# Entry
Amino acid sequence: MHGLGLTELAASLFLSFFLDNVRRDSVKKNDDALRSHKDWVYYFSSLVIDYLTVVLPILLIFTVLAEWAYMCAVSLVIVISICILFKRSQFHLKARQHNMPSLRTDISSYRVSVILVTCLSILAVDFKIFPRRYAKAETYGSGIMDLGVGSFVVANALVSRQARNTTAMRWKASLRSISPLVFLGFARLISTSGVDYQVHVGEYGVHWNFFFTLAAISILTSIVRIHPKYCGIVGMLVLAGYQVWLSFGLNEYLISNERSAGVISQNKEGVYSIFGYWGMYLIGVSLGYYMFFDTSLKCKSTQVVKVWILAASCWILAIILDSYIERVSRRMVGH
# Structure
């Protein structure tokens, strides 16, 4: 069901791109219109199309239409097929002129969808209209909200300064870039404690939250400077070593209720999960470098093929690890 929801999201983004091309053609045809009027029509129509084809479908699919997910997916595919057949010649001409959406456009759409689904899930999770299967899993398993934290880390890594190979930053600059995350982390801690908001301790710990995790990842990446060419290998080694550590007893410690008075023990889930998130971040840095910023790779078709191969390999690897090593767990960020 989670994969089906993400498929519907991808279909909505594709439909938005298609209609955006049609809109651009219609605006350009009216050459007699005033420039200011054309700009106003362009931005307003873009806003309307994005809302109707991306925001509204996601809102409905993850709430009131959650039980009709299959029907929604089929409907979106039918609508996209009709649009392509109706504007086939114009669409192909447009695609050749603009070479279809670039990978950078795709990753922008991916980041937008991650943020949109994250905001929707955070706001809707406390209401009955939001299906519980999309919420965070207690220990093992994954829901949409479990996928969101990992997706957020990878999305940031794809366009990070490390992926652009511009890691030469002074400590003061690094601290300035991390300070907003630290501030947000403490602000969330103080606000939730001040209003006595219910916080699940087993998620990140007593005091920890995801903002602290993002800050810790940035600190680790700034201290351990690795060329983006080798970030993928280092990231896989980090994840493999962390998984071995989990298999040798760390997983039992993390899912237990054992907590001492120490800061690390009080926040064991958040502290130890840094290694898993950092490994994913390094792999995302390597992927971003080779896909978007490596000037030696100029063949776009090769890039697309590599993305498909990588996606299929990751799915197969996730199934194997989940079946034979350990079930997926966001709480431990491992299998």
About this structure: The chain has 13 helices and no strands. The mean pLDDT is 77. The two ends are 20 Å apart (CA to CA).
